[in-house]
Design goal:
The structure is a single chain. This protein is mainly alpha-helical. The protein has a single domain, classed as Photosynthetic Reaction Center, subunit C, domain 2 (Orthogonal Bundle). The protein is 38% helix and 2% strand. The protein contains twelve helices and two strands. Strand 1 and strand 2 form a beta hairpin. It is globular, with a radius of gyration of 24 Å. The N and C termini lie far apart (70 Å).
Length: 351
């Protein structure tokens, strides 16, 4: 009898472990995010936060050096930041090296026998990435606010940011007779290990596809959305949730998830973030495709691109909202040419 009871107990324990495998092990923390009664709580796991905290520590920075002779006159072939003094320029180069290539040093981007030489693709890319930083910090304050970004926001000591994406190749089933798999049923970290399409990014962060699943009618003639669109949208939403380490209620009032009027301000910030990703992917990354060597390209020959995880890396604000721009003010940029049109488009979208 004892043997039977012991076996039954063991089976019960194993069944319970399987049943609870997808649950968070307590303790967890719940933080009220919306009005009382709306169930808009953010659920945090202290162990997860503790594990990611070291990755969100802002590195030490040098104070901004004094003005002096300009880099553009002192050095050859300075095409960006030439208005900085030689001390400011050199300080930034040292910082950039520590952010992007701490092991390889200056040689990662430069021919150290001739620093003016542009033969290394990494130097050409780095120059364009500096301009991208300036573009983000000047034009996209609707998303990055005054915190802004630097190279470290994405790279964090890595040559290539740890979180980038490539367009997924077609996945034909049954030798093509069963159609394209569309990235489904291939669990991926990019969409929280769900069975949803793991590349919602080509549609929404490269192309400007409509992010919408709710229709006002069941009639197909009026409601143009379909299940395929819905699955891609949910894939993107799960990606955003995982990238920021938050629940759906961070951007939505889940009792009326489609309503802009009942959504928190973070939803508008996320709307701008999607447009910002489209901007930097189309205007900065894609044009560099021919510059990158073949081994840096994806399976369809495209260049690595940015999504929410590239900057956020599990934190609701990259680096927990600590700004590095005080010591790198020249990354703020001055490009505001598209700010008015972007703002106008957002106002139209939320009405």
């Amino acid at each position: 009898m004892k043997t039977i009871f012991a076996k039954f107990s063991l089976l019960f324990i194993l069944f319970s472990m399987l049943l609870l495998a997808g649950c968070e092990r307590p303790p967890i923390e719940a933080v009220q995010h919306g009005y009382r009664g709306t169930a808009m709580d953010e659920i945090y796991n202290p162990r997860t936060l503790a594990a990611q905290a070291p990755n969100n520590v802002v590195p030490a920075s040098y104070p901004v050096p004094a003005d002096g002779p300009k880099a553009a006159t002192a050095y050859k072939n300075v095409k960006v930041l030439g208005n900085l003094s030689t001390a400011q320029f050199t300080t930034f180069m040292v910082s950039m090296t520590s952010w992007v290539s701490p092991q390889q040093g200056c040689a990662y981007c430069h021919n150290v026998e001739n620093f003016a030489d542009d033969s290394k693709y990494t130097k050409v890319v780095a120059r364009r990435m500096i301009q991208m930083n300036q573009r983000i910090n000047s034009t996209w304050q609707t998303h990055v606010k005054q915190t802004g970004v630097t190279c470290y926001t994405c790279h964090r000591g890595n040559n290539i940011p740890q979180q980038v994406w490539f367009t997924a190749p077609e996945q034909k089933q049954g030798n093509g007779w069963l159609g394209n798999k569309n990235g489904q049923n291939t669990p991926s970290q990019s969409v929280g290990l769900s069975s949803l399409p793991y590349d919602p990014f080509t549609s929404f962060l490269l192309k400007d596809s409509m992010i919408e699943v709710n229709g006002d009618t069941a009639l197909r003639t009026v409601n143009k959305r379909n299940i395929k669109d819905t699955e891609k949208t949910f894939g993107l939403m799960i990606h955003m949730s995982k990238s920021l380490g938050v629940n759906c209620s961070y951007c939505h009032n889940t009792r009326a998830i489609a309503s802009w009027k009942e959504s928190p301000p973070q939803r508008a910030t996320a709307w701008y973030g999607i447009r910002m990703a489209q901007d930097i992917n189309n205007n900065f990354m894609v044009p560099l495709t021919a510059v990158f060597p073949a081994h840096r390209l994806g399976p369809t020959g495209d260049v690595a691109k940015a999504n929410c995880a590239t900057c956020h890396q599990g934190a609701y604000k990259p680096l927990y909202g600590v700004s590095m721009l005080a010591n790198f003010p020249y990354l703020r940029g001055t490009d505001t040419t598209t700010a008015a049109s972007i703002s106008g488009a957002a106002n139209t979208a939320v009405k």
